[in-house]
Amino acid sequence: MATYLYSHKDCLEHRPPSGHPERVERLEVILEALDGEGFEALERREAPMAARAQIQRVHPAAYVDFIEASAPSGFETLTRLDPDTAMSAGTLNAALRAAGAGVAAVDAVVSGEAANAFCAVRPPGHHAEPGRAMGFCFFNNAGIAAMHARAAHRLARPAIVDFDVHHGNGSQALAYAEPDLFYGSTHQADAYPLTGDVDERGPAGNVFNALVQSGADGAAWRPHFDALIDALASFSPDIIIISAGFDAHAADPLAGLNLVDEDFAWATERLLDVANTRCSGRVVSVLEGGYDLRALARSTAAHVRALMAN
C-alpha cells in the first residue's frame, strides 16, 4: 500500500490580502517539493469537497450558513471575519476541499486502500472553533476528519496530535465536547492564541498540552513530544489525525522555536510507532502552519518521507 497525497487546485484560489503569511506560495512550494526525486511512489488524489453533513459534525448549521453567506462574489473583494482571517472569492471552495481531503483520506486509510495519507491543503483549520473562524482558519479540517472516522467507520477513539507551534484551540474545543476524542499538542508557551495550558485536561483526561519555552531547539522540544506520545498511547486510539504545522522551525517568522527538518521526521516516526502498535497503522496528516517557504517545503518533505517509509 502507498501513501496517498490529497490536494486540489482550488486550494490555490484562497487569496488573503497582500502580505498575509498564509499565502498561495505555501502550497505551491510544498507541491513542487513533493513532485521531486524520491516521491515517485506517492499516489496523488484530488481532494473532494466536504459535504455539509460532514462539516456539521464539528460546526453547527448556523456557522456553516454564516461562512457560506460571507463568501464574496467579486474577485477584488475580501470579507474580513477577524483581523487575521479574510475570505476571497475562492476561499469557500478551498475550505471545502481542505475539509474534504481529510474525509477522503480517512476513507482510504480505514478501508486499507492507502497505508497512510498527507493532505496538502489550505486554508488550515486547527484554530477554527465550532462557531468561530479565527487564526487563518474557517473549518476545522483535522476535527472533521476525526469525527468522520467515528461516524462513517465506527472508530470509537480517534486522536488528533498537533505539532504546530501554535495551540489548536479549535481542536481542543472539540475534544472538550467529545470525551472519546483525544487532542494532544506541543506548542510555544507565549504564542498565539495563548491557550492550551497544561492544566487543561479535558472532561475525561482526553487533552494533553505541552508548553515549550521560546527559543527551545529540537533537543529541548523532543522530551515534551515524548510525553505527548505517552499520553496518546495510554489513550489507545484507533486512528491518528496529525495536525502537521511546520512553524516551529527555526526559520519561521511567526514564532520562536528552533526545530529543524529532522525533528519533524522524528516526530512522524514516533507517531507511526504508536499507530502501528495501537491502531493498525491508521494515520492521516493534514497541513496546518509553516510560513518560511524553504523551511516549509523541506520540513513537509521530511514528514512525507517518514510516512512513505512506514
Could you give me the name of the CATH homologous superfamily?
Histone deacetylase domain
Beta content comes to 15-25%
User: What is the domain total for the residues?
Assistant: 1
> What fold name stands as the CATH topology?
Arginase, Chain A
**Secondary structure tally: strands:** 10
Q: Give me the Rg, rounded.
A: 17 Å
Low-confidence stretches: none
**Strand order in the sheet with the most strands:** 2-1-5-10-9-6-7-8
Mean pLDDT: 97
What is the percent of helical residues?
Answer: 25-40%
Q: What is the CATH class? A: Alpha Beta
Task: Give the overall form.
Answer: globular
What is the CATH architecture assignment?
3-Layer(aba) Sandwich
Structural class: alpha/beta
Question: How can the largest sheet be summarized?
Answer: 8 strands, parallel
Helix and strand run:
EHEHHEEHEHEHEEHEHEH
Could you give the distance between the termini? 10 Å
Number of helices: 9
Provide an overview of this structure.
With about 300 residues, this protein is an alpha/beta fold. It has one domain: Histone deacetylase domain (Arginase, Chain A, 3-Layer(aba) Sandwich). About 40% of the residues lie in helices and about 15% in strands. The protein is built from nine helices and ten strands. It has helices at about 25-35, 50-55, 60-70, 90-110, 140-155, 170-175, 220-235, 260-280, 295-310, and strands at about 5, 45, 80, 85, 115-120, 160, 180-190, 205-210, 240-245, 285. Strand 3 and strand 4 form a beta hairpin. Helix 1 crosses helix 9. The longest helix is centred in the N-terminal third of the chain and has 21 residues, at about 90-110. It is globular, with a radius of gyration of 17 Å. About 55% of the residues are buried. The mean pLDDT is about 95.
